[in-house]
Protein backbone atom coordinates (compact mmCIF):
# COMPACT_ATOMS: atom_id res chain seq x y z
CA UNK A 1 0.00 0.00 0.00
CA UNK A 2 1.31 3.50 -0.79
CA UNK A 3 2.25 5.08 2.54
CA UNK A 4 2.89 8.72 3.40
CA UNK A 5 6.17 9.05 1.41
CA UNK A 6 4.66 7.47 -1.70
CA UNK A 7 1.49 9.59 -1.59
CA UNK A 8 3.56 12.72 -0.91
CA UNK A 9 5.76 11.88 -3.91
CA UNK A 10 2.71 11.37 -6.13
CA UNK A 11 1.38 14.74 -4.94
CA UNK A 12 4.67 16.47 -5.73
CA UNK A 13 4.96 14.93 -9.20
CA UNK A 14 1.33 15.64 -10.16
CA UNK A 15 1.25 19.19 -8.78
CA UNK A 16 3.25 21.05 -11.48
CA UNK A 17 1.45 19.26 -14.32
CA UNK A 18 -2.11 19.28 -13.03
CA UNK A 19 -2.61 22.29 -10.78
CA UNK A 20 -4.36 25.18 -12.54
CA UNK A 21 -5.67 23.02 -15.36
CA UNK A 22 -9.34 22.59 -16.23
CA UNK A 23 -10.94 19.15 -16.35
CA UNK A 24 -12.55 18.84 -19.79
CA UNK A 25 -13.68 15.23 -19.77
CA UNK A 26 -14.31 12.40 -17.33
CA UNK A 27 -14.65 8.69 -18.03
CA UNK A 28 -15.33 6.10 -15.32
CA UNK A 29 -14.44 2.61 -16.55
CA UNK A 30 -15.09 0.91 -13.20
CA UNK A 31 -18.02 2.50 -11.31
CA UNK A 32 -17.10 0.67 -8.08
CA UNK A 33 -14.13 3.01 -7.59
CA UNK A 34 -16.37 6.07 -7.18
CA UNK A 35 -17.82 5.97 -3.67
CA UNK A 36 -19.65 9.30 -3.79
CA UNK A 37 -21.55 10.72 -5.59
CA UNK A 38 -22.95 8.27 -8.15
CA UNK A 39 -20.64 7.61 -11.11
CA UNK A 40 -23.11 9.49 -13.32
CA UNK A 41 -23.00 12.58 -11.09
CA UNK A 42 -19.23 12.27 -10.83
CA UNK A 43 -18.96 12.46 -14.62
CA UNK A 44 -21.35 15.42 -14.85
CA UNK A 45 -19.98 17.49 -11.93
CA UNK A 46 -16.24 17.43 -12.71
CA UNK A 47 -16.07 18.79 -16.29
CA UNK A 48 -15.19 22.50 -16.54
CA UNK A 49 -13.84 22.53 -12.98
CA UNK A 50 -10.35 23.94 -12.48
CA UNK A 51 -7.91 22.09 -10.22
CA UNK A 52 -6.89 24.75 -7.70
CA UNK A 53 -4.62 22.82 -5.37
CA UNK A 54 -3.31 19.31 -4.74
CA UNK A 55 -2.66 18.36 -1.13
CA UNK A 56 -2.25 15.31 1.07
CA UNK A 57 -3.67 14.13 4.37
CA UNK A 58 -2.22 10.86 5.65
CA UNK A 59 -2.49 8.41 2.75
CA UNK A 60 -5.15 10.49 0.96
CA UNK A 61 -4.67 12.87 -1.97
CA UNK A 62 -6.88 15.97 -1.87
CA UNK A 63 -7.69 17.92 -5.03
CA UNK A 64 -9.36 21.27 -4.41
CA UNK A 65 -11.48 22.23 -7.43
CA UNK A 66 -13.77 25.10 -8.40
CA UNK A 67 -17.04 25.68 -6.62
CA UNK A 68 -15.85 24.78 -3.13
CA UNK A 69 -15.57 21.10 -4.03
CA UNK A 70 -12.78 18.58 -3.49
CA UNK A 71 -11.85 15.30 -5.11
CA UNK A 72 -10.42 12.87 -2.54
CA UNK A 73 -8.40 9.84 -3.63
CA UNK A 74 -7.34 6.86 -1.52
CA UNK A 75 -5.06 4.56 -3.50
CA UNK A 76 -5.79 1.37 -1.57
CA UNK A 77 -3.18 -1.36 -1.98
CA UNK A 78 -2.09 -0.86 -5.59
CA UNK A 79 -3.62 2.38 -6.89
CA UNK A 80 -1.70 4.60 -9.31
CA UNK A 81 -2.41 8.18 -10.42
CA UNK A 82 -0.30 9.13 -13.41
CA UNK A 83 -0.22 11.85 -16.06
CA UNK A 84 -0.12 10.69 -19.66
CA UNK A 85 -0.85 11.74 -23.23
CA UNK A 86 -4.18 10.53 -24.66
CA UNK A 87 -2.44 8.52 -27.39
CA UNK A 88 -0.56 6.30 -24.94
CA UNK A 89 -2.34 2.92 -24.56
CA UNK A 90 -4.15 2.41 -21.27
CA UNK A 91 -2.46 0.13 -18.78
CA UNK A 92 -4.54 -2.82 -17.53
CA UNK A 93 -6.97 -2.10 -14.68
CA UNK A 94 -7.41 1.57 -15.57
CA UNK A 95 -10.60 2.73 -13.85
CA UNK A 96 -10.88 6.53 -14.20
CA UNK A 97 -9.72 8.93 -16.93
CA UNK A 98 -9.64 12.71 -16.46
CA UNK A 99 -8.85 14.69 -19.62
CA UNK A 100 -7.40 18.14 -18.92
CA UNK A 101 -7.08 21.25 -21.05
CA UNK A 102 -3.91 21.07 -23.07
CA UNK A 103 -4.53 17.42 -23.89
CA UNK A 104 -3.06 15.70 -20.84
CA UNK A 105 -4.84 12.85 -19.09
CA UNK A 106 -4.75 11.83 -15.45
CA UNK A 107 -5.30 8.08 -15.22
CA UNK A 108 -6.24 6.08 -12.17
CA UNK A 109 -5.32 2.38 -12.36
CA UNK A 110 -5.64 -0.17 -9.57
CA UNK A 111 -5.08 -3.92 -10.13
CA UNK A 112 -6.49 -4.98 -6.75
CA UNK A 113 -9.36 -2.46 -6.78
CA UNK A 114 -9.22 -1.43 -3.13
CA UNK A 115 -8.77 2.26 -3.96
CA UNK A 116 -11.64 4.73 -3.94
CA UNK A 117 -12.48 8.34 -4.68
CA UNK A 118 -14.99 10.87 -3.39
CA UNK A 119 -16.23 14.15 -4.87
CA UNK A 120 -18.28 16.72 -3.00
CA UNK A 121 -18.46 20.05 -1.20
CA UNK A 122 -15.85 20.91 1.42
CA UNK A 123 -15.80 20.03 4.31
CA UNK A 124 -18.53 17.40 3.97
CA UNK A 125 -16.58 15.31 1.47
CA UNK A 126 -13.64 15.13 3.90
CA UNK A 127 -15.94 13.74 6.60
CA UNK A 128 -17.45 11.30 4.11
CA UNK A 129 -13.98 10.01 3.22
CA UNK A 130 -13.04 9.65 6.91
CA UNK A 131 -10.43 12.40 7.06
CA UNK A 132 -11.93 13.80 10.25
CA UNK A 133 -10.98 10.58 12.04
CA UNK A 134 -7.30 10.66 11.09
CA UNK A 135 -4.60 11.24 13.68
CA UNK A 136 -1.75 13.73 13.66
CA UNK A 137 0.50 14.17 10.61
CA UNK A 138 3.92 12.78 11.61
CA UNK A 139 5.82 15.39 9.57
CA UNK A 140 3.84 18.33 10.92
CA UNK A 141 4.88 20.66 13.78
CA UNK A 142 1.95 19.22 15.77
CA UNK A 143 3.75 15.87 15.98
CA UNK A 144 5.94 16.23 19.07
CA UNK A 145 7.67 13.78 21.43
CA UNK A 146 5.21 14.82 24.13
CA UNK A 147 2.28 14.16 21.84
CA UNK A 148 3.65 10.76 20.87
CA UNK A 149 4.13 9.91 24.54
CA UNK A 150 0.47 10.79 25.10
CA UNK A 151 -0.60 8.48 22.27
CA UNK A 152 1.38 5.56 23.70
CA UNK A 153 0.77 6.06 27.42
CA UNK A 154 -1.98 3.96 28.94
CA UNK A 155 -2.20 1.60 25.95
CA UNK A 156 -1.42 -2.06 26.45
CA UNK A 157 -1.42 -2.71 22.71
CA UNK A 158 2.02 -3.33 21.25
CA UNK A 159 3.78 -0.29 19.88
CA UNK A 160 3.57 -1.39 16.25
CA UNK A 161 -0.21 -1.74 16.39
CA UNK A 162 -0.56 1.77 17.82
CA UNK A 163 1.76 3.27 15.20
CA UNK A 164 -0.25 1.63 12.41
CA UNK A 165 -3.54 2.96 13.78
CA UNK A 166 -4.48 5.79 11.40
CA UNK A 167 -6.57 7.37 14.17
CA UNK A 168 -3.30 7.89 16.08
CA UNK A 169 -0.83 8.72 13.31
CA UNK A 170 -1.91 9.48 9.75
CA UNK A 171 0.14 7.96 6.94
CA UNK A 172 2.49 5.56 8.71
CA UNK A 173 2.23 2.05 7.25
CA UNK A 174 3.91 -1.32 7.52
CA UNK A 175 7.17 -0.52 5.74
CA UNK A 176 8.02 2.70 7.51
CA UNK A 177 6.76 1.45 10.86
CA UNK A 178 9.24 -1.46 10.77
CA UNK A 179 12.02 0.87 9.68
CA UNK A 180 11.26 3.43 12.41
CA UNK A 181 11.16 0.81 15.17
CA UNK A 182 14.50 -0.57 13.98
CA UNK A 183 16.00 2.92 13.81
CA UNK A 184 14.82 3.57 17.38
CA UNK A 185 15.93 0.14 18.69
CA UNK A 186 12.45 -0.79 19.94
CA UNK A 187 10.90 -4.26 19.64
CA UNK A 188 7.59 -4.16 17.70
CA UNK A 189 5.83 -6.22 20.40
CA UNK A 190 6.71 -3.88 23.28
CA UNK A 191 3.55 -2.75 25.11
CA UNK A 192 3.16 0.91 24.21
CA UNK A 193 2.74 2.05 27.78
CA UNK A 194 6.17 0.67 28.79
CA UNK A 195 8.23 2.99 26.59
CA UNK A 196 10.34 5.45 28.54
CA UNK A 197 10.56 9.16 27.79
CA UNK A 198 13.96 8.57 26.18
CA UNK A 199 12.67 5.74 24.01
CA UNK A 200 9.70 7.82 22.88
CA UNK A 201 12.04 10.67 21.93
CA UNK A 202 14.16 8.23 19.88
CA UNK A 203 11.05 6.84 18.22
CA UNK A 204 9.79 10.33 17.39
CA UNK A 205 13.09 11.16 15.68
CA UNK A 206 13.12 7.80 13.90
CA UNK A 207 9.60 8.19 12.50
CA UNK A 208 10.40 11.57 11.03
CA UNK A 209 13.74 10.36 9.66
CA UNK A 210 12.44 7.29 7.85
CA UNK A 211 9.53 9.22 6.33
CA UNK A 212 11.79 12.05 5.17
CA UNK A 213 14.27 9.53 3.73
CA UNK A 214 11.44 7.77 1.90
CA UNK A 215 10.31 11.03 0.31
CA UNK A 216 13.91 11.94 -0.59
CA UNK A 217 14.24 8.63 -2.47
CA UNK A 218 10.92 8.99 -4.30
CA UNK A 219 9.13 6.31 -2.30
CA UNK A 220 9.50 2.54 -1.98
CA UNK A 221 8.80 0.48 -5.13
CA UNK A 222 8.70 -3.12 -3.97
CA UNK A 223 5.73 -4.13 -6.12
CA UNK A 224 3.31 -1.76 -7.85
CA UNK A 225 4.15 1.76 -6.72
CA UNK A 226 5.05 4.43 -9.28
CA UNK A 227 4.86 8.21 -8.95
CA UNK A 228 2.75 10.64 -11.00
CA UNK A 229 5.35 10.56 -13.80
CA UNK A 230 5.23 6.76 -13.95
CA UNK A 231 8.65 6.37 -12.33
CA UNK A 232 9.62 3.91 -9.61
CA UNK A 233 11.06 5.05 -6.31
CA UNK A 234 14.40 3.76 -5.04
CA UNK A 235 13.94 3.70 -1.25
CA UNK A 236 13.70 -0.11 -1.35
CA UNK A 237 17.46 -0.05 -1.86
CA UNK A 238 17.91 1.62 1.54
CA UNK A 239 15.59 -0.48 3.74
CA UNK A 240 17.29 -1.82 6.86
CA UNK A 241 14.87 -4.60 7.86
CA UNK A 242 11.59 -4.54 5.92
CA UNK A 243 11.42 -7.47 3.49
CA UNK A 244 14.88 -8.71 4.56
CA UNK A 245 13.97 -11.72 6.73
CA UNK A 246 16.94 -14.09 7.04
CA UNK A 247 19.44 -11.52 5.80
CA UNK A 248 22.10 -9.92 8.01
CA UNK A 249 21.11 -6.94 10.11
CA UNK A 250 22.99 -3.89 8.74
CA UNK A 251 23.84 -2.84 12.29
CA UNK A 252 24.94 -6.00 14.13
CA UNK A 253 25.14 -8.71 11.46
CA UNK A 254 22.58 -10.94 13.18
CA UNK A 255 19.61 -12.32 11.23
CA UNK A 256 16.62 -10.12 10.46
CA UNK A 257 13.54 -11.97 11.72
CA UNK A 258 9.90 -11.93 10.67
CA UNK A 259 6.74 -12.34 12.73
CA UNK A 260 3.11 -11.34 12.30
CA UNK A 261 1.70 -8.42 14.28
CA UNK A 262 -1.95 -7.52 13.81
CA UNK A 263 -2.05 -9.51 10.59
CA UNK A 264 0.98 -7.67 9.17
CA UNK A 265 4.32 -9.21 8.33
CA UNK A 266 6.80 -7.54 10.68
CA UNK A 267 10.58 -7.39 10.29
CA UNK A 268 13.03 -6.70 13.09
CA UNK A 269 16.41 -7.55 14.61
CA UNK A 270 16.15 -9.32 17.95
CA UNK A 271 19.62 -8.14 19.02
CA UNK A 272 19.20 -4.47 18.12
CA UNK A 273 15.56 -4.25 19.19
CA UNK A 274 15.64 -6.55 22.21
Question: Can you describe this structure in just a few lines?
Answer:
The chain is 27% helix and 23% strand.
List the helices and strands and how they pair.
Elements: H1 4-18, E1 23-28, E2 34-36, H2 39-45, E3 51-57, E4 60-65, E5 69-74, E6 80-84, E7 94-100, E8 105-109, E9 116-121, H3 124-129, H4 145-152, H5 159-164, H6 174-184, H7 197-216, E10 256-261, E11 264-269
Parallel strand pairs: 2-9
Antiparallel strand pairs: 1-7, 3-4, 4-5, 5-9, 6-8, 7-8, 10-11
Q: End-to-end distance, in Å?
A: 28 Å
Q: In percent terms, what proportion of residues is strand? A: 15-25%
- What proportion of the residues is helical, as a percent range? 25-40%
Global morphology: globular
Give the SSE string.
HEEHEEEEEEEHHHHHEE
**CATH topology annotation of the largest domain:** N-terminal domain of MutM-like DNA repair proteins
Assigned CATH class of the largest domain: Alpha Beta
Write down how many β-strands occur, each being a DSSP E stretch of 2 or more residues.
11
Which architecture of the largest domain would the CATH scheme give at its second level? Answer: Alpha-Beta Barrel
- Round the Cα radius of gyration to an integer and report it: 20 Å
SS field, number of helical segments: 7
Taking pLDDT < 50 over at least 5 consecutive residues as the criterion, the unreliable ranges are none
Number of domains: 2
**Major sheet strand order:** 2-9-5-4-3
The major beta sheet can be summarized as: 5 strands, mixed
Q: What oligomeric assembly is this protein in? A: single chain
CATH homologous superfamily of the largest domain - what is it? MutM-like, N-terminal
What class would the helix/strand composition place it in? Answer: alpha+beta
Amino acid sequence: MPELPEVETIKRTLKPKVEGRVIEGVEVLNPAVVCSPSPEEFCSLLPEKRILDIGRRGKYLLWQVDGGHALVWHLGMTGRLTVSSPGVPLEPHTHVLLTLDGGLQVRYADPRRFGRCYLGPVPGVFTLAGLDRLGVEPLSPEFTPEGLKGLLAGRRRCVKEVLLDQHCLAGLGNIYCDEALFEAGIHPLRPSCTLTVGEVARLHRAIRKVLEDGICHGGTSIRDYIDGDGKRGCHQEYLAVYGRAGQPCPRCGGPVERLVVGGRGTHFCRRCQG
